[in-house]
Design a protein that fits this description.
Helices cover 74% and strands 0% of the residues. It contains three helices and no strands. The relative contact order is 0.18. Helix 1 packs antiparallel against helix 2, helix 1 crosses helix 3 and helix 2 packs antiparallel against helix 3.
Length: 90
């Protein structure tokens, strides 16, 4: 089964971590900082662990793309909340 891809590794990281951040924040809205910091740490751990395999390697740009993706997902979540609150005002 083919894996979905944007065609560029860094954008795959960005999109994947954006979705993870949005899903995590929707699931745990009162744990905002934990979700964000946990996902950035998770992305760092994955990159670190890849350096111990013989067939993968760690990349700083992957970690940066992960972190930007998390921030993008957080931004979408924040905008969603802002518009949801604004629509409740008379």
């Amino acid at each position: 089964m083919p894996v979905p891809s944007t065609g560029w590794d860094k954008s795959n990281h960005l999109v994947g971590y954006s979705v993870l951040a949005l899903a995590g924040l929707l699931a745990y809205p009162v744990r905002e900082l934990r979700v964000i910091s946990g996902l950035v740490a998770y992305g760092g751990l994955i990159e670190l662990l890849q350096s111990f395999t013989g067939y993968r390697f760690a990349e700083w740009l992957d970690l940066l793309a992960n972190a930007i993706g998390v921030l993008l997902g957080w931004g979408v979540w924040s905008l969603r909340n802002r518009f949801a609150v604004a629509s409740l005002r008379p």
